[in-house]
Amino acid sequence: MTFTDLRSDTVTKPGPAMRAAMAAAEVGDDVYAEDPTVRALEEYVADLFGQPFALFTPTGVMANQLAVRLTVPAGGELVLDADAHIVAHEDGAASAQGGVQTRTTLSPRGLLDPADLARLIRVGNPYTVGTDLVAVEQTHNRGGGSVYPLERLTAIRELVSGYGLPLHCDGARIWNAHVATGTPLRGYGALFDSLSVCLSKGLGAPAGSVLMMPAEYEAEARRMRHRMGGGMRQAGILAAGGRYALEHHVERLAEDHEHARELAVLLRDAGFAVADPETNIVLVELGERQPDAAAIAERCRADGVLVSAFGPRLVRLVTHMDVDAAGCARAATAIARAAKG
Amino acid sequence: MTFTDLRSDTVTKPGPAMRAAMAAAEVGDDVYAEDPTVRALEEYVADLFGQPFALFTPTGVMANQLAVRLTVPAGGELVLDADAHIVAHEDGAASAQGGVQTRTTLSPRGLLDPADLARLIRVGNPYTVGTDLVAVEQTHNRGGGSVYPLERLTAIRELVSGYGLPLHCDGARIWNAHVATGTPLRGYGALFDSLSVCLSKGLGAPAGSVLMMPAEYEAEARRMRHRMGGGMRQAGILAAGGRYALEHHVERLAEDHEHARELAVLLRDAGFAVADPETNIVLVELGERQPDAAAIAERCRADGVLVSAFGPRLVRLVTHMDVDAAGCARAATAIARAAKG
Amino acid sequence: MTFTDLRSDTVTKPGPAMRAAMAAAEVGDDVYAEDPTVRALEEYVADLFGQPFALFTPTGVMANQLAVRLTVPAGGELVLDADAHIVAHEDGAASAQGGVQTRTTLSPRGLLDPADLARLIRVGNPYTVGTDLVAVEQTHNRGGGSVYPLERLTAIRELVSGYGLPLHCDGARIWNAHVATGTPLRGYGALFDSLSVCLSKGLGAPAGSVLMMPAEYEAEARRMRHRMGGGMRQAGILAAGGRYALEHHVERLAEDHEHARELAVLLRDAGFAVADPETNIVLVELGERQPDAAAIAERCRADGVLVSAFGPRLVRLVTHMDVDAAGCARAATAIARAAKG
Amino acid sequence: MTFTDLRSDTVTKPGPAMRAAMAAAEVGDDVYAEDPTVRALEEYVADLFGQPFALFTPTGVMANQLAVRLTVPAGGELVLDADAHIVAHEDGAASAQGGVQTRTTLSPRGLLDPADLARLIRVGNPYTVGTDLVAVEQTHNRGGGSVYPLERLTAIRELVSGYGLPLHCDGARIWNAHVATGTPLRGYGALFDSLSVCLSKGLGAPAGSVLMMPAEYEAEARRMRHRMGGGMRQAGILAAGGRYALEHHVERLAEDHEHARELAVLLRDAGFAVADPETNIVLVELGERQPDAAAIAERCRADGVLVSAFGPRLVRLVTHMDVDAAGCARAATAIARAAKG
Ligand SMILES: [Ca+2]
Ligand SMILES: [Ca+2]
Ligand SMILES: [Ca+2]
Ligand SMILES: [Ca+2]
Ligand SMILES: [Ca+2]
Ligand SMILES: [Ca+2]
Questions:
Q1: Ranges of H-type helices in A249-280
Q2: Looking at the 3D structure of chain A, how many domains does it have?
Q3: Which of A106, B72, B159, B198 falls 20 to 30 Å from D78 in CA-CA distance?
Q4: Of A248, A267, A297, the domain-final residue
């Protein structure tokens, strides 16, 4: 059976042109910072966002965790929303490996409200833990691919700067926000002290993320990347795939967004509670009379459609370059059938 | 100058009878679990709350941290309110030393709402961090000595049990809740899987807390206490002070509550925004036109009155056995004078 | 049954005069650094060793761990001997709570050889972990109360200084080295960047150690002590016991050393392999034909004598102020009987 | 200038056939364990060593660290030699991220002596840290590519089994030991509970290692790999390179060993102290009258030859598939010239 896979945009696979680019990549030993294709990718991405320094990492988890751990000492505090990828899907790494305390609040669609943030941030003193870093996620995965409006981000930036604190963006899917809103990448880049972006989700590269940070962190970032097990040698093979993705697959994310909207319409027509997708993620909230998410996912799989059980009664579908409109229609049909049992 | 010290109820000092009890204590080596006075105190406290096992610790931080670390693995998650002592005043210990991820939400007066809690708790799977422990604080320090009504605690207990999770209570000042509400200690004890109580705050012992947990944790709790540096030898000296405090200083907390109410009236009369104190803590919110908390604290000190700057515009006063009604009046006067500049 | 307890000198109990001193102690809140008896003890001990700053801690584990963690970052390295208390009896705390890597070598009687130390210390670079701290133990517990000769310590100091590294001394029983060799405490104090000393072993106080370090660590040391759960409030009660011990129980350690020598003679006469004790610890190596250490300890206990099984075939006896010559004779007899089975 | 690069065998680059294999690789999402090329590589490697389970990782550091952290709890102990890669070149990761205590001893050529090991291993009890894991390194990097004889490994295995403990092998260069000694890979595989092997050193793949462990660790290993940031998506691209390397580049390591021997002869002829290389690593110990290692490395670089300063007076040269006999001769000449200054 051929599967229509909407579990995540991570499942995207490299096509022939990207593969050719990887096969032709000039490489070196990136632990010695001598892989020319990696270095070129890092400079290319830094330039896209107007950031001073970039470092290639095997995964987005590593990119986020490097930003957090380089900025927050053990026993220090990271403030973010309670549904952020960093606290939901990174295995507690910031705390487990870096000793970082996370402090969060529940926020609609995962988007922090500046007023809540003002209540969360704390100035440290000898008897009180102070906040060391604030993080936002753009677009927000668990929020359903939700997008922070630029004004909200700007307000957060000002608030955070008022405390003299750095602001991190988990921008794994910032490309989707850029395409959905038209905000230039440099417009986002100017707001953050550190920023991680992913090459292997909607962009379709096989692996790799890029972390941007102030340049003074370079030595420590390379060291920490090595400690975490991310010091790959001839990483230019992967970097070449990422570069190809950046040059060819950003603008086409608009198609994924279009597919997501179509999928939402089909699902709503079939009687499901589905919010308007802002980008490429569709969340389906299951009612009390419907099967739970795990059952839906299992039945859809039997029908050739893969979706994620994202909560007991929450199904997530993610559109991407390897699924077309017909695939979305197939998925909507399968879910409707699954819900009927 | 003699100071009226309302910074905290931790400043309470042992009187002659408590000192005599300590001097007469039979002792042994508590690392070998052979100090009879410590053992007796542990059994006494466990019995007060109807809990199966108790362990003496040098401090409340250690008691809370033991409960968290024995229950939550590194990379696991503790859910609690965003102003809890555990995330505000324990130096990030759960994360820094135990690798525990904390996930929180802002709550009025620090008291978790069961509906919010239901949104916070997460069932883990291979791709998602699951919650391992939920904690409440009774009374709530940063919430202004606020008290969870028994029904709210019962609802939280049911919710948490529905997920098969344990519930911890930071009960440093649970004595105040008991006295203020009349809820029996065993009524509280029945609700929690683990519970820490403090002997050196309102109760007036020089040092020490007691942690209660399921008895199967005993060996690991002793080990972890030793690792944290809490394996004191002839600790019976301190335990004797705690025992005296428990036998003589619980009911008198009602006086502290009365003093707090009087202090609040005086401060309100003087034009300050002060909520009705539920127990022995009075929080004064300073207006934009008033000096900030640090300035108030500094001026009061010059006037012989010690208070805590608990936030940029928040002053905390805590009543206790070493301050009488006259002391409270003196404090109210000093604060009023300080606010005028 | 009355026990003769030679398991450790930690079992020493406070007598009437020490208890009276504790009962009379003036106290304050030591988390605010306001306990006068604690402050006086800290200054007294710092002065004894000619060190700039001292901090009272509940236990020796906490004192050592503070020194290590304040000096070595997570991922940094502590070099010491393979049988040091820090790696044998502190529950892996430096690594578990501070992320510190320990690197060791086996050394006769636990005393590091400068030539081995030179091979162990490593200068860090981007690809190699460098050493951050070296530690010695004086006297050495698992080495059998062995004493570093001053010349050896001086050679180690010079070697370590040549690398620009700090040197820590776990001086839990440095009093015994001082009394055994006549080396002034300031002679030891001058050699170390940080130094922990214990009040509750041979000196007989109920609890407490003192850490000495450069004064610039004070704020961080208080913070870390609080994080570890060592921020006791009216700790002056314990500090008064420690002060009494320092003023009355140092020189008498010579008696314990004499008792250890007598015990060794008795045990050798009874056919055991026993090295000459240098201070107050006697190690008995059991032969293949003798019962193992656990069996010896169990049989002695039935005979009213408590000893430690310190390894599968190693028994440790520690003399102290609560055991006299008759007690030592009783112990020798019990061990001989136990070995016969 | 074209460089002759003997800094490490990590600098090896993929050739056309390996690149073609990578470009043609069938891929899937390896976080979902669905990448067929990764799965096939894992099975292939597990079969080579007769091990039950294998997991692909981006780097050897991650493979080693997974083995350590899955086997040793925080506060537990790993015993190994003092020059092991795990404590020299992995940035303290076991301690920093896993809270693991390392205990080591100095060993000639990095090869543990069973008698020393017997003294290092400790059985835990409530007051003593016990050993949880023993590790060896085959071949040993800092030992100069030294090879454990099979009998020594077998003796260590028996000793370790006697304590009921697992034995890990850092087998980054176990291929070299296999080729140098003729010991079958399964002969090694049978000795270890866990084993990491590297594809990107002498074998010439661009990146990747493989960890073998008991199959019951699979779920936790995947989780921990994700937490460390090693959950790459379409990792089959890299796995295809590793598979090609395994099928084509193992036996040719004999050439590297031959080159190392030739290099050693040339260097000895030029007056340097050089031990007989056992595999592909040549260590040059510089005398007091010669320039130090950093100076040698710098001068060689100016001469087009890259070598590693491996200690203040220690130079390391590593032969590999991208350097031929002429390159080795060039290197020997450059070093001789550099030493003359
Ligand atoms: Ca992909
Ligand atoms: Ca840590
Ligand atoms: Ca940890
Ligand atoms: Ca008190
Ligand atoms: Ca004692
Ligand atoms: Ca390579």
A1: 253-269
A2: 2
A3: B72
A4: A248
**C1 has a pLDDT exceeding 90:** no
Q: Which residues constitute the domain of residue D200?
A: 14-248
Does residue B56 form part of some domain? yes
What tokens does A114 get? 């500046």
**Nearest chain D residue (CA) to A97:** D97
pLDDT digits (tens, 9 = 90+) for D117-150: 999 999 999 999 999 999 999 999 999 999 999 9
> What pLDDT does residue D157 have?
98
CATH value at residue C262: 3.90.1150.10
> Using one digit for the tens of pLDDT, what is the confidence trace for D213-256?
999 999 999 999 999 999 999 999 999 999 999 999 999 999 99
Regarding whether D200 and D140 lie in a shared domain, the answer is yes
Comparing CB atoms, the residue among B126, B127, B223 nearest residue D126 is B223
> Is there a domain that residue D5 lies in?
no
Structural domain ending residue among the three candidates D214, D248, D282: D248
Residues A294 and A179 both lie in one domain: no
Contact B11 C238 (CB under 8 A): no
Nearest Cα residue in chain C from D78: C102
User: Region C224-242: what's the mean pLDDT?
Assistant: 98
Question: For position D223, what pLDDT does the model report?
Answer: 98
Q: Which chain B residue has the Cα nearest residue A86?
A: B129
Q: Which of D106, D120, D125, D318 to mutate to test the interface with C (most CBs of C within 10 A)?
A: D106
> Could you give phi then psi for residue C55, rounded to 5 degrees?
-135, 130
Distance of CA A77 to the CA centre of its chain: 21
Ligand 2 centroid to Cα of residue C63, in Å, is 19
CA distance D127 to chain A (A): 26
Q: Verify that D239 and D299 share a domain, yes or no.
A: no
Spatial neighbors of D289 by CB under 8 A, at least 6 apart, are: none
Which site among A6, A203, A237 would you substitute to test the D interface, given the most D Cβ atoms closer than 10 Å to its Cβ?
A237
Shortest Cα distance, chain B CAs vs residue D131, angstroms: 16
Under DSSP, the state recorded for A280 is: S
Report CB contact under 8 Å: A235, D20.
no
Which residue in the set D13, D92, D235 is minimally distant from A27, CB to CB? Answer: D13
Low-confidence stretches of chain B (pLDDT beneath 50):
none
Are residues A217 and A281 both part of a single domain? Answer: no
Q: Is 80 exceeded by the pLDDT of residue A341?
A: no
Q: Which ligand has the shortest distance to the CA of A13?
A: 1
A116 CB within 8 Å of a chain B CB: yes
In this prediction the ipTM stands at: 0.97
CA dist D23 and A132 (Å) reads 44
Q: Are residues A235 and A112 in the same domain?
A: yes
Surface-to-core class of residue B287, CB atoms within 10 Å of its CB (0-12 exposed, 13-18 middle, 19+ buried): exposed
Q: Are residues D232 and D306 in the same domain?
A: no
Q: A135 CA distance to ligand 3 centroid (A)? A: 23
In this structure, is residue C108 part of a structural domain?
yes
Of the candidates A87, A174, A114, the residue with the CA atom closest to the CA atom of residue A139 = A174
**Ordered strands of the A281-285 beta sheet:** A273-274, A281-285, A314-318, A308-311
Same domain, B242 and B256: no
In a domain, B8, yes or no: no
Q: Do A126 and C222 touch (CB under 8 A)?
A: yes
Ligand nearest to the CA of C241: 5
**What CATH number is associated with residue C138?**
3.40.640.10
A125 with A198, same domain? yes
Token duo for residue C143:
């080495």
Beta-carbon count within 10 A of A125 CB: 10
Residue C167: predicted pLDDT: 98
Residues A92-113 have a mean pLDDT of: 98
Residue burial A228-245, b: 16+ Cβ < 10 Å; e: rest: bbbbbbbbbbbbbbbbbb
Any B CB within 8 A of D96 CB: no
